[in-house]
Fold this protein.
Amino acid sequence: MRVAGNSIRIAVGPTILLGSGNFFDYDDTENSEISLLDLAYGLAFAARFSGQCVSQNTGRRVYYSVAQHCEIMSRVAPPEFAYAALMHECGESVCGDLTTPLKSKLPDYRRIEKQCEKAIMSAFQVGDFDRSVIKTYDVRLWVTERRDLMNWDGKRWSEDDVAEPFDFEIVPLGPYEAADAFVARFLEIAPHEMQAKFRP
């Protein structure tokens, strides 16, 4: 896969047209092109939890994006894992976000999402990392999101539902603010070559 520049590649078959004008080909992820803004806005307009978020402070429905989830993850994970944490949901920029229970019913979707994730991580120079570390922080952030942004009664959902939430409150951003925050964080922590490619 290549990180998009100015070229536009016309494709047929199982493709989507990205905001940059490039086509993302699900059958040829390695040779598809995606820009930083494609990534950031794809994640910023993908709602966590299928959009079923409710502020526990106001009782009102709120929008909470995958981009904001990733940006927060990059700050709570250990510094050496910050970039991997920022990029850990990158496949959802082209696949959308499905809830985990639904994903469990769709093994083909999981396979395609992982293939897209692998190609995008390679294009953006995300090196090898210990996924178990990312998972630990992802689960803690998930229980924080459940506490702050879901209509949750406070009861554990299973015997292994024991992770403790973080001690900060999540304040949801709109999609444009979330995209901006994702890009800003990328420009702080991405490999220098990637920062140079996208810095204004």
